[in-house]
Structures are given as structure tokens and as C-alpha cells.
Amino acid sequence: xxxxxxxxxxxxxxxxxxxxxxxxxxxxxxxxxxxxxxxxxxxxxxxxxxxxxxxxxxxxxxxxxxxxxxxxxxxxxxxxxxxxxxxxxxxxxxxxxxxxxxxxxxxxxxxxxxxxxxxxxxxxxxxxxxxxxxxxxxxxxxxxxxxxxxxxxxxxxxxxxxxxxxxxxxxxxxxxxxx
Length: 179
Prior knowledge:
By secondary structure, this protein is mostly helical. It has helices spanning 2-48, 56-68, 76-97, 102-120; strands at 130-135, 140-144, 162-167.
């Protein structure tokens, strides 16, 4: 009887540990995505402010988060498709980090935006609604929490642009793809 109770106790403890580890892994993966998106938004603000000199710290942080980004808990076909996108995003982040002027920074930022949004269509990267927007004059993409256009690329044309696509919390796949 004691042996049986011991086995049940051990099985319960192991089960609890597995569930705790899985939840912890989900929390860590979501924290990683939150850091990536926060770093992205800080660089976007630097571009909006035309703050090339002051952007270096944020650019370095974004590049670090992109390099550390992991595609976890995806189905095999999503993993294979997004692996290439993730690799492209890493290359673009390195280009952003090495940009010598605001124009080069904007080109790399637009490329990162497209990759990040493609990943977001499969993986939840923020709890907020996010909108992919485009400026035809600058040929640049950016992400925004608002549907209203606030173009980070052209200070003289803040309202220039168009809404390409939106992702609200309800648009993310269920269950959340990352574990």
C-alpha cells in the first residue's frame, strides 16, 4: 500500500513538474517575443524622430532580439516556411545595425517589418492589435498599434500611407502556436 502511494505521489510530482516546465517555456517564449516587439517599436520611434545617432542602442537591442528569436512549438510545415523568413530577418537586422545613414536604416527596417509580420501571422508576438502599413512614396513598411497612418519614414507626410493588413488578438491561430 505504501509502495503504491509512493508511486502515485511520484507520478503526480513528475506530472506537475512537466506541466510547470511547459508553462514556464510558454512564458519564456512569450517574453522573448515581447522583447523583440518592444525593441522593434523603439527603433520605429527613432526612425519617426529621425534620430539616427541616438538609435544605435535600440538597433543593437533589436538585432540581439532577432538573433535570439526562436521558432518554438510550430508544426513542421510552418517551421520550415518561417525558418527562411527568420533567417532573412536576421540578415536584415545585421544590415540595420551596420547602416551608415538614415536612408539605409529605413530600407533595412522595412525589410525587418515584412519578415516580422509574416512571422506574426503564425505566432503571437503581442497582445495588442497590430497593423501592417505601407508608404508608396518611400516604398517602406512599418507596424503600428493604430489603424490611423502615422508614417515614420516621411516627417513632412505623416498621414501618407495605407493600411495593408491588420492582426487583432482574435486573428492569431488557436491555440497560440508557440510553446
